[in-house]
Give the backbone structure.
Amino acid sequence: MSSLNEEQTDTMRWRRSSPDHHSNLSVRRCSCAGHKIDESEKEKAMHSDKDISRFSEISPRTAVIVAGLGLFMMTILAFFANFFLFSNLIVPGDAKTTSVHIMASGELLRIGISCFLVVALLDVVVAWALYVLLQPVNKHLSLLAAWFRVVYAAIFATALNNLLSVLQLLTGADSFKVFATNQVHAQVMVFLSAFQSGWDIGLVLFGLHLLVLGSLVFKSGYIPRWLGVLLTISSVGYLVDGFGKFLLPDYHLAMTLFTGWGELFLMFWLLWRAMKGFDKRRFPGAAVALDGRAHREGDEKEKGGPNESHSLHTLWTTRSSSAQRGAKTCSQEQ
């Protein structure tokens, strides 16, 4: 009996020392490692599929609708505040009359400030919508254009603080106790000029936004090129007027009155495209964003479960058998 045990022990030692045994162990370890790698790749692919699912919620038509309606509301509010409110309150070069108008109709100035604040908020929304619409052309340039517009909106919203200072100065009880009437009127004009200067600084960044936006529109292929040309011309007008006011004290040109129609035409095109619908075949690099959710919903109805991408399905099917064998081998070895 002892001799039999010794023979079995020698046989086990020989098998363990043999190269085939070591190769089998390495194969088992590799299969276990491969199983772990397959699991990690599967998890990464699932997270990627979830990200695609989230992106597919934002279609080009949604971006077109948001951008078009945002620009339309901004146009209405800015036009109303400029030509129906501020034009009736502010008399250029006449501090006394301007102060009297604001003191008599301070609520109009408050409404105008509120309109401009909504315009600044809508600028951020429009920047996001245009980024979504144009990122298939060039994601980095689209992001740059969006940031130019967001920073412009922040500068414009900050400049509105000067208009609030005008209200506080004219409606505050202590203003006329501390300063003479002429001094108060002069400070009113200083705050109004500061608001305009802050807005002019922001418009330089807005001109850079239009410059990048025009380049993206021109290269897109799914937005008319002439809109890109008009946006580029508009950007030149904003840049020339902005730097002209800073560099030339007697600068009185207003090039934007002649060149600043590009964004208005873009707004009309976006509204028209929102009503007509967006041609998916002309939207490059966004097949998943356009049709991903529809394909997933159709596959879920057919298969009764969540759809997987083709690459993920191929990865799982080609490696499933080896992964299962590796898992079984690992469990047997343990």
Q: What stands out?
A: The chain is about 85% helix and 0% strand. The mean pLDDT is 77.
